[in-house]
Design brief:
By secondary structure, this protein is α/β, with parallel strands linked by helices. It is about 30% helix and about 10% strand. Helix 8 links the parallel strand 7 and strand 8. The radius of gyration is 22 Å and the shape is globular. It is found in: Golgi apparatus membrane. It is a single-pass type II membrane protein.
Protein backbone atom coordinates (compact mmCIF):
# COMPACT_ATOMS: atom_id res chain seq x y z
CA UNK A 1 0.00 0.00 0.00
CA UNK A 2 1.36 3.38 -0.99
CA UNK A 3 2.15 5.72 1.87
CA UNK A 4 0.32 8.56 0.17
CA UNK A 5 0.58 12.16 1.37
CA UNK A 6 -2.05 12.58 4.08
CA UNK A 7 -4.10 14.97 1.95
CA UNK A 8 -5.34 11.96 -0.05
CA UNK A 9 -6.44 9.90 2.98
CA UNK A 10 -6.95 11.43 6.42
CA UNK A 11 -6.85 14.87 4.83
CA UNK A 12 -9.99 14.11 2.83
CA UNK A 13 -11.81 13.19 6.05
CA UNK A 14 -10.61 16.41 7.70
CA UNK A 15 -11.75 18.49 4.72
CA UNK A 16 -15.17 16.83 4.86
CA UNK A 17 -15.47 17.56 8.59
CA UNK A 18 -14.33 21.17 8.15
CA UNK A 19 -16.80 21.80 5.34
CA UNK A 20 -19.67 20.69 7.54
CA UNK A 21 -18.51 22.22 10.82
CA UNK A 22 -20.51 24.92 12.53
CA UNK A 23 -19.47 28.47 11.71
CA UNK A 24 -16.33 29.36 13.64
CA UNK A 25 -15.38 25.76 14.44
CA UNK A 26 -14.04 24.58 11.08
CA UNK A 27 -10.50 24.35 12.51
CA UNK A 28 -11.50 21.71 15.07
CA UNK A 29 -11.07 18.91 12.51
CA UNK A 30 -7.36 19.60 12.25
CA UNK A 31 -6.89 19.01 15.98
CA UNK A 32 -8.18 15.42 15.92
CA UNK A 33 -5.34 12.82 15.77
CA UNK A 34 -5.37 10.53 12.75
CA UNK A 35 -6.13 7.45 14.83
CA UNK A 36 -9.22 9.12 16.30
CA UNK A 37 -10.71 10.28 13.02
CA UNK A 38 -13.98 8.64 12.04
CA UNK A 39 -14.99 8.17 8.46
CA UNK A 40 -18.41 9.72 7.70
CA UNK A 41 -20.93 6.90 7.55
CA UNK A 42 -22.19 6.42 4.03
CA UNK A 43 -22.61 3.72 1.44
CA UNK A 44 -19.12 4.10 -0.05
CA UNK A 45 -17.16 3.44 3.13
CA UNK A 46 -15.40 0.38 1.65
CA UNK A 47 -12.44 2.69 0.96
CA UNK A 48 -12.08 3.28 4.72
CA UNK A 49 -12.47 -0.39 5.66
CA UNK A 50 -9.82 -1.51 3.14
CA UNK A 51 -7.41 1.23 4.22
CA UNK A 52 -7.77 0.43 7.92
CA UNK A 53 -7.39 -3.28 7.23
CA UNK A 54 -4.03 -2.78 5.50
CA UNK A 55 -2.91 -0.38 8.23
CA UNK A 56 -3.15 -3.15 10.82
CA UNK A 57 0.13 -4.89 11.60
CA UNK A 58 0.89 -8.29 13.05
CA UNK A 59 -0.25 -11.79 12.07
CA UNK A 60 -3.18 -11.80 9.68
CA UNK A 61 -5.38 -14.44 8.15
CA UNK A 62 -6.11 -12.62 4.91
CA UNK A 63 -5.93 -13.37 1.18
CA UNK A 64 -3.40 -10.53 0.89
CA UNK A 65 -0.56 -9.31 3.09
CA UNK A 66 0.97 -5.86 3.14
CA UNK A 67 4.71 -5.78 2.51
CA UNK A 68 7.11 -2.97 3.38
CA UNK A 69 9.51 -3.44 0.46
CA UNK A 70 7.81 -2.54 -2.85
CA UNK A 71 10.14 -4.92 -4.64
CA UNK A 72 8.26 -7.75 -2.88
CA UNK A 73 4.81 -6.54 -3.91
CA UNK A 74 2.62 -8.24 -6.51
CA UNK A 75 0.12 -5.39 -6.43
CA UNK A 76 0.14 -1.75 -5.33
CA UNK A 77 -2.91 -0.40 -3.52
CA UNK A 78 -3.58 3.35 -3.89
CA UNK A 79 -5.63 4.30 -0.79
CA UNK A 80 -7.13 7.57 -2.04
CA UNK A 81 -10.59 8.19 -0.54
CA UNK A 82 -12.00 8.95 -3.97
CA UNK A 83 -15.71 8.61 -3.14
CA UNK A 84 -15.50 10.83 -0.08
CA UNK A 85 -13.44 13.36 -2.01
CA UNK A 86 -16.27 13.64 -4.51
CA UNK A 87 -18.67 14.94 -1.83
CA UNK A 88 -16.29 17.00 0.31
CA UNK A 89 -17.21 20.23 -1.45
CA UNK A 90 -18.73 22.43 1.24
CA UNK A 91 -22.42 22.68 1.91
CA UNK A 92 -21.72 26.25 2.99
CA UNK A 93 -19.19 28.81 1.65
CA UNK A 94 -15.68 27.81 2.68
CA UNK A 95 -14.62 31.46 2.97
CA UNK A 96 -16.01 31.42 6.52
CA UNK A 97 -12.83 29.64 7.58
CA UNK A 98 -9.66 31.75 7.68
CA UNK A 99 -6.06 30.87 8.26
CA UNK A 100 -3.68 32.62 10.64
CA UNK A 101 -2.91 35.38 8.17
CA UNK A 102 -6.58 36.21 7.85
CA UNK A 103 -6.91 35.01 4.26
CA UNK A 104 -9.77 32.74 3.38
CA UNK A 105 -8.90 29.08 2.86
CA UNK A 106 -9.41 27.90 -0.72
CA UNK A 107 -12.40 25.69 -1.37
CA UNK A 108 -11.68 21.98 -1.63
CA UNK A 109 -11.54 20.74 -5.23
CA UNK A 110 -12.02 17.07 -6.00
CA UNK A 111 -10.84 17.59 -9.57
CA UNK A 112 -7.62 19.25 -8.46
CA UNK A 113 -7.05 16.49 -5.90
CA UNK A 114 -7.45 13.82 -8.57
CA UNK A 115 -4.94 15.63 -10.79
CA UNK A 116 -2.47 15.96 -7.92
CA UNK A 117 -2.81 12.26 -7.10
CA UNK A 118 -1.92 11.23 -10.65
CA UNK A 119 0.94 13.71 -10.79
CA UNK A 120 2.30 12.15 -7.59
CA UNK A 121 1.85 8.59 -8.85
CA UNK A 122 3.42 9.27 -12.21
CA UNK A 123 6.62 10.27 -10.40
CA UNK A 124 6.79 6.88 -8.66
CA UNK A 125 9.11 4.27 -10.24
CA UNK A 126 6.70 1.38 -9.63
CA UNK A 127 3.91 3.22 -11.43
CA UNK A 128 6.14 4.02 -14.40
CA UNK A 129 7.48 0.46 -14.56
CA UNK A 130 4.25 -1.03 -15.96
CA UNK A 131 2.23 2.13 -16.51
CA UNK A 132 0.08 1.36 -13.49
CA UNK A 133 -1.11 -2.05 -14.63
CA UNK A 134 -0.32 -3.69 -11.27
CA UNK A 135 -2.01 -0.93 -9.26
CA UNK A 136 -5.39 -1.05 -7.52
CA UNK A 137 -7.76 1.91 -7.09
CA UNK A 138 -11.09 2.09 -5.31
CA UNK A 139 -13.69 4.28 -7.01
CA UNK A 140 -16.96 3.01 -5.57
CA UNK A 141 -19.11 6.06 -6.26
CA UNK A 142 -19.97 5.92 -9.99
CA UNK A 143 -18.43 9.39 -10.46
CA UNK A 144 -15.32 8.86 -8.34
CA UNK A 145 -12.02 9.47 -10.19
CA UNK A 146 -14.00 10.44 -13.30
CA UNK A 147 -11.45 13.08 -14.26
CA UNK A 148 -8.51 10.67 -14.41
CA UNK A 149 -10.18 7.33 -15.14
CA UNK A 150 -8.71 7.15 -18.65
CA UNK A 151 -5.23 7.54 -17.18
CA UNK A 152 -5.76 4.62 -14.77
CA UNK A 153 -7.71 2.27 -17.04
CA UNK A 154 -4.82 -0.21 -16.99
CA UNK A 155 -5.25 -0.69 -13.26
CA UNK A 156 -7.59 -2.88 -11.22
CA UNK A 157 -10.63 -0.76 -10.34
CA UNK A 158 -12.81 -1.55 -7.34
CA UNK A 159 -16.28 -0.35 -8.35
CA UNK A 160 -19.95 -0.84 -7.52
CA UNK A 161 -20.99 -1.20 -11.14
CA UNK A 162 -19.98 -0.20 -14.67
CA UNK A 163 -22.79 2.31 -15.11
CA UNK A 164 -20.54 5.29 -15.87
CA UNK A 165 -17.58 3.38 -17.31
CA UNK A 166 -16.92 2.42 -20.91
CA UNK A 167 -15.78 -1.07 -21.89
CA UNK A 168 -12.26 0.17 -22.66
CA UNK A 169 -12.03 1.54 -19.11
CA UNK A 170 -13.39 -1.35 -17.06
CA UNK A 171 -14.65 -4.92 -17.26
CA UNK A 172 -15.29 -7.97 -15.13
CA UNK A 173 -12.02 -9.43 -16.40
CA UNK A 174 -9.71 -6.99 -14.63
CA UNK A 175 -11.93 -5.21 -12.09
CA UNK A 176 -13.81 -6.13 -8.90
CA UNK A 177 -17.42 -5.39 -7.98
CA UNK A 178 -17.90 -4.25 -4.37
CA UNK A 179 -21.01 -4.25 -2.19
CA UNK A 180 -22.18 -0.92 -0.87
CA UNK A 181 -22.08 -0.52 2.90
CA UNK A 182 -25.52 -1.12 4.33
CA UNK A 183 -27.07 2.01 5.84
CA UNK A 184 -29.64 0.40 8.11
CA UNK A 185 -29.21 -1.93 11.08
CA UNK A 186 -28.96 -5.64 10.37
CA UNK A 187 -31.93 -7.78 11.35
CA UNK A 188 -31.00 -9.78 14.44
CA UNK A 189 -33.92 -12.19 14.51
CA UNK A 190 -34.42 -15.57 12.89
CA UNK A 191 -36.12 -16.41 9.61
CA UNK A 192 -39.88 -16.06 9.59
CA UNK A 193 -42.84 -14.45 7.85
CA UNK A 194 -45.36 -14.00 10.66
CA UNK A 195 -43.92 -10.65 11.76
CA UNK A 196 -43.47 -9.43 8.19
CA UNK A 197 -46.86 -7.94 7.49
CA UNK A 198 -46.04 -6.00 4.31
CA UNK A 199 -45.69 -7.77 0.99
CA UNK A 200 -43.24 -5.35 -0.64
CA UNK A 201 -41.27 -2.34 0.60
CA UNK A 202 -39.29 0.44 -1.04
CA UNK A 203 -38.14 3.81 0.25
CA UNK A 204 -35.91 6.09 -1.78
CA UNK A 205 -35.77 8.86 -4.31
CA UNK A 206 -38.62 8.53 -6.77
CA UNK A 207 -37.08 10.73 -9.43
CA UNK A 208 -33.74 9.66 -10.86
CA UNK A 209 -31.82 10.21 -14.08
CA UNK A 210 -30.96 7.81 -16.89
CA UNK A 211 -31.77 4.17 -16.06
CA UNK A 212 -33.38 5.21 -12.78
CA UNK A 213 -36.34 6.80 -14.54
CA UNK A 214 -38.12 3.45 -14.19
CA UNK A 215 -38.60 4.26 -10.50
CA UNK A 216 -41.31 6.80 -11.25
CA UNK A 217 -43.20 4.23 -13.32
CA UNK A 218 -42.91 1.66 -10.55
CA UNK A 219 -44.28 4.17 -8.07
CA UNK A 220 -47.31 4.72 -10.30
CA UNK A 221 -48.12 1.02 -10.63
CA UNK A 222 -47.41 0.08 -7.01
CA UNK A 223 -48.38 2.98 -4.75
CA UNK A 224 -52.06 2.00 -4.57
CA UNK A 225 -51.48 -1.74 -4.18
CA UNK A 226 -52.56 -3.37 -0.93
CA UNK A 227 -49.74 -4.58 1.35
CA UNK A 228 -47.19 -2.55 -0.60
CA UNK A 229 -45.25 0.30 1.04
CA UNK A 230 -43.49 2.53 -1.46
CA UNK A 231 -42.27 5.92 -0.26
CA UNK A 232 -40.29 8.80 -1.70
CA UNK A 233 -37.55 9.86 0.70
CA UNK A 234 -34.04 11.26 0.63
CA UNK A 235 -31.21 10.09 2.90
CA UNK A 236 -31.65 11.26 6.49
CA UNK A 237 -31.48 9.79 9.97
CA UNK A 238 -35.26 9.61 10.19
CA UNK A 239 -35.64 8.04 6.75
CA UNK A 240 -33.11 5.37 7.72
CA UNK A 241 -35.14 4.57 10.82
CA UNK A 242 -38.28 4.27 8.69
CA UNK A 243 -36.44 2.12 6.16
CA UNK A 244 -35.19 -0.16 8.94
CA UNK A 245 -38.72 -0.68 10.25
CA UNK A 246 -40.05 -1.21 6.74
CA UNK A 247 -37.42 -3.71 5.62
CA UNK A 248 -37.51 -5.65 8.88
CA UNK A 249 -41.29 -6.04 8.60
CA UNK A 250 -41.61 -6.85 4.87
CA UNK A 251 -41.32 -10.10 2.98
CA UNK A 252 -39.86 -8.56 -0.18
CA UNK A 253 -37.83 -5.40 -0.83
CA UNK A 254 -37.80 -3.68 -4.18
CA UNK A 255 -34.44 -2.89 -5.79
CA UNK A 256 -34.90 -0.73 -8.90
CA UNK A 257 -31.95 0.82 -10.70
CA UNK A 258 -30.78 4.21 -9.51
CA UNK A 259 -28.84 6.66 -11.68
CA UNK A 260 -26.67 3.61 -12.36
CA UNK A 261 -27.74 -0.07 -12.29
CA UNK A 262 -26.87 -0.68 -8.61
CA UNK A 263 -27.93 0.98 -5.36
CA UNK A 264 -27.28 0.49 -1.66
CA UNK A 265 -30.83 -0.70 -0.91
CA UNK A 266 -30.03 -4.16 -2.24
CA UNK A 267 -27.56 -4.66 0.61
CA UNK A 268 -29.88 -3.02 3.13
CA UNK A 269 -32.47 -5.61 2.12
CA UNK A 270 -30.07 -8.55 2.41
CA UNK A 271 -28.95 -7.68 5.94
CA UNK A 272 -32.65 -7.30 6.77
CA UNK A 273 -33.53 -10.83 5.52
CA UNK A 274 -35.96 -9.07 3.18
CA UNK A 275 -35.91 -10.92 -0.15
CA UNK A 276 -34.68 -8.50 -2.83
CA UNK A 277 -36.78 -8.03 -5.95
CA UNK A 278 -34.25 -6.74 -8.48
CA UNK A 279 -35.58 -4.63 -11.34
CA UNK A 280 -32.32 -3.56 -12.97
CA UNK A 281 -31.47 -5.23 -16.25
CA UNK A 282 -27.74 -4.37 -16.30
CA UNK A 283 -26.84 -4.74 -12.65
CA UNK A 284 -23.50 -6.25 -11.68
CA UNK A 285 -23.31 -8.05 -8.34
CA UNK A 286 -20.37 -8.67 -6.00
CA UNK A 287 -18.72 -12.03 -5.39
CA UNK A 288 -20.74 -14.00 -7.93
CA UNK A 289 -18.13 -16.76 -8.02
CA UNK A 290 -19.21 -17.73 -4.48
CA UNK A 291 -22.79 -16.38 -4.29
CA UNK A 292 -25.66 -17.61 -6.46
CA UNK A 293 -28.00 -14.63 -6.33
CA UNK A 294 -30.87 -16.62 -7.78
CA UNK A 295 -31.03 -18.36 -4.38
CA UNK A 296 -31.40 -15.10 -2.46
CA UNK A 297 -33.11 -12.71 -4.90
CA UNK A 298 -35.89 -12.47 -7.44
CA UNK A 299 -35.01 -10.93 -10.81
CA UNK A 300 -37.71 -9.27 -12.90
CA UNK A 301 -37.20 -7.71 -16.32
CA UNK A 302 -37.90 -4.00 -16.30
CA UNK A 303 -40.32 -4.18 -19.24
CA UNK A 304 -42.47 -6.66 -17.29
CA UNK A 305 -42.10 -5.11 -13.83
CA UNK A 306 -43.69 -1.82 -14.96
CA UNK A 307 -46.85 -3.55 -16.12
CA UNK A 308 -49.76 -3.00 -13.67
CA UNK A 309 -50.20 -5.87 -11.17
CA UNK A 310 -47.38 -7.92 -12.69
CA UNK A 311 -44.99 -7.69 -9.74
CA UNK A 312 -47.57 -8.09 -7.01
CA UNK A 313 -49.21 -11.10 -8.68
CA UNK A 314 -45.83 -12.86 -8.83
CA UNK A 315 -44.98 -12.06 -5.21
CA UNK A 316 -48.39 -13.05 -3.84
CA UNK A 317 -47.97 -16.41 -5.55
CA UNK A 318 -44.78 -17.23 -3.62
CA UNK A 319 -45.49 -19.50 -0.66
CA UNK A 320 -44.41 -18.81 2.90
CA UNK A 321 -42.15 -21.87 2.79
CA UNK A 322 -40.41 -20.54 -0.34
CA UNK A 323 -39.85 -17.19 1.38
CA UNK A 324 -38.31 -19.03 4.33
CA UNK A 325 -35.98 -20.83 1.92
CA UNK A 326 -34.85 -17.48 0.51
CA UNK A 327 -34.28 -16.16 4.04
CA UNK A 328 -32.24 -19.21 5.06
CA UNK A 329 -30.01 -18.77 2.02
CA UNK A 330 -29.62 -15.05 2.76
CA UNK A 331 -28.53 -15.85 6.32
CA UNK A 332 -25.78 -18.10 4.95
CA UNK A 333 -24.23 -15.29 2.91
CA UNK A 334 -25.24 -12.19 4.92
CA UNK A 335 -21.74 -11.75 6.33
CA UNK A 336 -20.46 -10.98 2.82
CA UNK A 337 -22.35 -7.68 3.02
CA UNK A 338 -21.50 -6.60 6.58
CA UNK A 339 -18.24 -4.65 6.58
CA UNK A 340 -18.10 -4.76 10.36
CA UNK A 341 -17.83 -8.58 10.25
CA UNK A 342 -14.15 -9.71 10.58
CA UNK A 343 -14.89 -12.39 7.97
CA UNK A 344 -17.03 -10.11 5.84
CA UNK A 345 -16.58 -8.24 2.56
CA UNK A 346 -13.07 -6.91 3.27
CA UNK A 347 -11.70 -10.46 3.18
CA UNK A 348 -13.71 -11.27 0.09
CA UNK A 349 -12.65 -8.12 -1.75
CA UNK A 350 -8.99 -8.94 -1.11
CA UNK A 351 -9.57 -12.49 -2.33
CA UNK A 352 -11.09 -11.14 -5.54
CA UNK A 353 -8.19 -8.71 -5.97
CA UNK A 354 -5.64 -11.49 -5.42
CA UNK A 355 -7.27 -13.49 -8.22
CA UNK A 356 -6.37 -10.70 -10.63
CA UNK A 357 -2.63 -11.03 -9.99
CA UNK A 358 -1.96 -13.87 -12.50
CA UNK A 359 -3.89 -12.01 -15.19
CA UNK A 360 -1.90 -8.85 -14.51
CA UNK A 361 1.35 -10.84 -14.77
CA UNK A 362 0.13 -12.24 -18.10
CA UNK A 363 -0.52 -8.73 -19.43
CA UNK A 364 2.86 -7.47 -18.21
CA UNK A 365 4.81 -10.35 -19.76
CA UNK A 366 2.81 -10.06 -22.97
CA UNK A 367 3.60 -6.38 -23.23
CA UNK A 368 7.32 -7.10 -23.00
CA UNK A 369 7.32 -9.11 -26.23
CA UNK A 370 4.92 -7.02 -28.31
CA UNK A 371 6.70 -4.61 -30.60
CA UNK A 372 3.65 -2.45 -31.23
CA UNK A 373 -0.04 -2.70 -30.39
CA UNK A 374 -3.01 -0.79 -31.69
CA UNK A 375 -4.46 0.46 -28.40
CA UNK A 376 -6.77 3.14 -29.83
CA UNK A 377 -5.74 5.54 -27.10
CA UNK A 378 -5.87 3.10 -24.20
CA UNK A 379 -3.61 0.41 -22.84
CA UNK A 380 -6.27 -1.57 -21.04
CA UNK A 381 -5.77 -4.92 -22.88
CA UNK A 382 -8.92 -6.13 -21.18
CA UNK A 383 -11.86 -8.12 -22.43
CA UNK A 384 -15.28 -6.58 -22.36
CA UNK A 385 -18.11 -8.15 -20.31
CA UNK A 386 -19.63 -9.36 -23.57
CA UNK A 387 -16.50 -11.40 -24.21
CA UNK A 388 -15.11 -9.45 -27.17
CA UNK A 389 -11.60 -8.11 -27.24
CA UNK A 390 -11.18 -4.39 -26.75
Amino acid sequence: MYDLPAKFTYGVVRSYMAARARAGSAGAASAVPDEELRYPGHQHSAEWWLFKDLMRRGPRDRPVARVDDPADADLFYVPFFSSLSLVVNPIRPSTAAANASGAAEPAYSDESTQDELLEWLERQPYWRRHRGRDHVFICQDPNALYRVVDRISNAVLLVSDFGRLRSEQASLVKDVILPYSHRINSFQGDVGVDSRHSLLFFMGNRYRKEGGKVRDTLFKVLENEADVIIKHGAQSRESRRMATRGMHSSKFCLHPAGDTPSACRLFDALVSLCVPVIVSDYVELPFEDVIDYSNISIFVETSKAVQPEFLTSILRGISSERILEYQREIKKVKHYFEYEDPNGPVNEIWRQVSLKAPLIKLFINRDKRLVETDTNGTDCSCISPEGTAT
